[in-house]
Design a protein that fits this description.
2 domains; two-stranded antiparallel ribbon; 11% strand; 4 strands; elongated; alpha+beta
Length: 140
């Protein structure tokens, strides 16, 4: 792959290049530099698609490093590359988890035994709705 071409103009706090484009609006509008680079090289970006980076460098505007995808594609690409695995971490792998996997298993056993959700919730210091979600396996 060819080297990155770095945007040297204005950048967002997250490092994406920004530029001011004067076109259909009287005062113009701001656009992401990587989107503009993609459009200059490949034509218009279809509605609903994002311009993604193969190189994972927000300030890169090399058209060879850019490709189209949905926001879902973008998130899965980020997970695959190890940049945002926390978003999809389930159970105790998520650092914001309140319960361990063993706690969730104990809650399911208590529900099968007929314990009331409010009693289980009080014992684990969680909400009744979380007990219900764990019992229905909508959350781990």
């Amino acid at each position: 792959m060819s080297p990155c071409i770095f945007w040297t103009g204005t950048k967002t706090p997250t490092g994406y290049g920004m530029l001011w484009k004067k076109d259909t609006q009287p005062r113009g509008h701001r656009v992401y530099a990587h989107r503009e680079a993609y459009e200059q090289a490949n034509g218009a970006i279809p509605a609903g698609l994002s311009v993604l980076h193969r190189c994972d460098t927000p300030s890169c505007v090399n058209p060879e490093h850019l490709f189209l995808g949905t926001q879902r594609d973008n998130m899965f690409d980020a997970v695959r590359k190890g940049r945002v695995s926390i978003l999809f971490a389930r159970g105790e792998k998520n650092p914001r988890a309140k319960l361990s996997d063993d706690d969730a298993a104990a809650i399911r056993i208590a529900l099968r035994r007929g314990e009331l959700q409010r009693e289980i919730a009080a014992r684990f210091s969680i909400s009744r709705s979380l007990v219900s979600l764990i019992g229905s396996r909508n959350i781990r």
